Amino acid sequence: MDKIFVAKRVAQKLFETEAAVDGALVEAAELMSEMLKARTDVSTSLVFADDVQVKMMEAMKALSEARTAMVGVHNELNEAKLRLGIRTKMSGQDKPQEGASREQTIMREAI
C-alpha cells in the first residue's frame, strides 16, 4: 500500500483521537460546573461532597495529561512521517471540524 495513504489513514485517526480527548475534557469541565451549581441549588454546605469534587479534579488532571500525551504523539508521528520520506502536508480538510462530533453548545443568558 502506498505510504501516503497509510499516513493519511493514521493522521485521520490521530485527529479523531485528539478531538475525543478534547471532548472528554470539555464534558468533564461541564460536569464539574454542574456539580458546583447543584450544591448551591440545594443549599448544602461547602464541605458537602467535597471528596467528589476532589475526585473530579483528579479525573480532569488525568484528561489534561492525556491531552498533553496526544500532543507528543502528534509530534512524534510528524517526525515519523518525515523519516518515511513523506514531505507533503496533510490537508486540513481531513481534520474533523471543531465540535463536529458534538451537538452545538447553546449559550444562554445567566440570570
What does it look like?
The chain has 111 residues and is mainly alpha-helical. It is 66% helix and 0% strand. The chain has two helices and no strands. It has helices spanning 3-41, 50-83. α1 runs antiparallel to α2 (50-83). The longest helix has 39 residues, at 3-41. The model is unreliable at 101-105 (pLDDT under 50).
Short description:
66% of the residues lie in helices and 0% in strands. It has helices at 3-41, 50-83.
β-sheet strand percentage: under 5%
Percent helix: 55-70%
Oligomeric organization of the protein chains:
single chain
First-to-last CA distance: 58 Å
Q: Which class best fits the helix and strand makeup?
A: mainly alpha
Low-confidence stretches: 101-105
How many helices in DSSP terms?
2
Mean pLDDT: 86
Q: SSE order, as H and E?
A: HH
| Count of β-strands | 0
Spatial shape: rod-shaped
Rg: 20 Å
Largest sheet: none
